[in-house]
TrEMBL record:
Keywords: DNA-binding, Nucleus, Transcription, Transcription regulation. InterPro entries: p53-like_TF_DNA-bd_sf, T-box_DNA-bd, T-box_sf, TF_T-box, TF_T-box_CS. This is T-box transcription factor 4. PROSITE patterns: TBOX_1, TBOX_2, TBOX_3. It is found in: Cytoplasm; Nucleus.
Length: 503
DNA sequence: TCCCCTGGCACATTTGAATCGC
DNA sequence: AGCGATTCAAATGTGCCAGGGG
């Protein structure tokens, strides 16, 4: 009841929306690298309307915006063919999760640590994307259940999609405008500004197709040439940063939209210039299983923050009360972002926008199932990749799970309740309970809770923290393996018909 | 030949340990 | 001894570029 109301009342505003719009209008591009690259602008939101005392889990995922592959021709993005098979979808759980509504509302919620990669075998838990494809980030707000997990029968959640955050993944920037916007706005790229900062812009303003070569560029070229002439230096050690991320893996494979199959990104961007926010809410009613997202681990940068003035440092004692619950950071004082993967046949979402949301008190949060603007995208058969988990200092996670039949049925909607450890273990997709309910009706067809298996993921309550517990990839008896520095789960995520079977 | 992708580079920012002073 | 401020080196995050591969 209150959870429902809370979810309904939650409002999310995209931070630095104007900046996002600038990129959006130029056709946002995000670099993806093997080691993982952050997004810029970073995904930050301001959340309001939460119940201050209720605990929520905030997570994001990035789903295909359509099923096309793009190429940059004639200074614009054009469809270049059909999209490649979707990468294993992964969820990025905000490191502060679960936290009270008061905590989330107190400060900006930042997902700036999220990284994108094109490494299909990425072991760090970064979100895997295909280059030259269009994607749409989404924010999910999930009400944590009594065990600080989600997926139980009363778990409610909603999804927010800001169209201006859509982007095309690239391995190197294609559009000079984007490059310049990045350089001008990203502090880390200051080195490319310099006094000749305006070179490119000036050249563009002067109507030149190609930018004036800046001194920086000349310098780099000289240096580079020199290096090549003097012989390749010894191969530098690639210092990978085993960013400790726990991950659940799921198959996304569902384009957010197919509405503009022939439109280059620019067109889409233009048409979505107005504030548009897809807003979906869903409440699990009869899904009596808990989703234990045991991805917690110390995260020194407890604050999902930047230097924004509205940011507050989290209290050291934050969440101490959760230490004895599943999906909580028992005894953890710092956190690490968590990546979850699962089979996601979803894409269900309604349309709306931030403002609309804010001004639409009547917006029904339980609309996910009925609002499916994004056509389903066949992901059936997409196999899981073995995913080495990285989950440092994660609390003991003992997934007590049912053994659902693992047939995956593409569905145009996400169902956060389908995390299932047993499937993880088997590397099989999970079928979630059919969360097709679009209202608050008390009865929603769904899987029955299996006796003795209240949660998909269940972190032993009150168990001491075992930072370096070692889990194997496919535990024999329903326990997930965690390996230092982090562990990841491969879980199925689907809202398709669930077929839970007792084993 | 073209289109992407990769790895290495320089530069800037961020982080965290060490140091210092009160 | 404890605390806060400062310093500094290492780690990390950027875009650029040449070269390589399909």
């Amino acid at each position: 009841m209150d959870s429902q109301q809370n979810i309904e009342n939650i409002k999310v505003v995209l931070h630095e929306r104007e900046l996002w719009k600038k990129f959006h209008e130029a056709g946002t591009e995000m670099i993806i690298t093997k080691a993982g690259r952050r997004m810029f602008p970073s995904y930050k939101v301001k959340v309001t309307g939460m119940n201050p005392k209720t605990k929520y889990i905030l997570l994001t995922d990035i789903v295909p915006a359509d099923d096309h592959r793009y190429k940059f021709c004639d200074n614009k993005w054009m469809v270049a063919g059909k999209a490649e098979p979707a990468m294993p979808g992964r969820l990025y759980v905000h490191p502060d999760s679960p936290a009270t509504g008061a905590h989330w509302m107190r400060q900006l919620v930042s997902f700036q640590k999220l990284k994108l990669t094109n490494n299909h075998l990425d072991p760090f838990g970064h979100i895997i994307l295909n280059s030259m494809h269009k994607y749409q980030p989404r924010l999910h707000i999930v009400k944590a259940d009594e065990n600080n997990a989600f997926g139980s029968k009363n778990t409610a959640y909603c999804t927010h999609v800001f169209h201006e955050t859509a982007f095309i993944s690239v391995t190197s920037y294609q559009n000079h405008k984007i490059t310049q916007l990045k350089i001008e706005n990203n502090p880390f790229a200051k080195g490319f500004r310099g006094s000749e900062e305006g070179d490119l812009r000036v050249s563009r303003l002067q109507g030149k197709d190609y930018p004036v070569i800046s001194k920086n560029i000349v310098r780099q070229r000289l240096i580079s040439s020199h290096n090549h002439l003097t012989g390749k230096l010894g191969a530098g050690v690639l210092t990978g940063h085993p960013q400790v991320l726990s991950s659940y893996q799921y198959e996304t494979g569902v384009p957010l939209s197919n509405r503009d199959p022939q439109d280059p990104l620019s067109n889409h961007l233009t048409q979505t210039r107005d504030p548009s926010l897809l807003y979906h809410c869903f409440k699990h009613r009869d899904n009596s299983r808990h989703l234990e997202l045991g991805c917690k681990r110390p995260y020194l940068e407890a604050t999902p923050v930047s230097s924004e003035e509205h940011y507050f440092r989290p209290t050291p004692s934050y969440e101490s009360s959760l230490l004895s619950h599943p999906y909580c950071t028992e005894g953890i004082t710092s956190r690490e972002p968590c990546m979850y993967s699962s089979v996601d046949t979803e894409s269900g979402s309604g349309t709306g926008d931030t403002e609309d949301l804010a001004n639409s008190p009547s917006l029904n949060c339980n609309m996910w199932a009925t609002m499916q603007p994004y056509p389903c995208y066949g992901v059936e058969g997409v196999s899981y990749q073995p995913f080495t988990a990285h989950f440092t200092n994660a609390g003991p996670v003992t997934p007590v799970v049912p053994h659902p039949s693992s047939s995956m049925v593409p569905r145009p909607q996400a169902d956060l309740s389908v995390y299932n450890a047993s499937s993880v273990q088997r590397g099989l997709p999970i079928i979630s309970p059919s969360s097709s309910s679009s209202s608050c009706s008390p009865v929603i067809p769904g899987p029955r809770e299996r006796p003795g298996h209240p949660s998909l993921y269940h972190k032993k309550t009150g168990s001491p923290l075992h930072p370096h517990r070692d889990f194997t990839a496919y535990p024999a008896q329903g326990t997930l393996s965690i390996r230092d520095p982090a562990y990841q789960y491969q879980v199925g995520l689907s809202s398709a018909g669930t077929h839970w079977t007792d084993s």
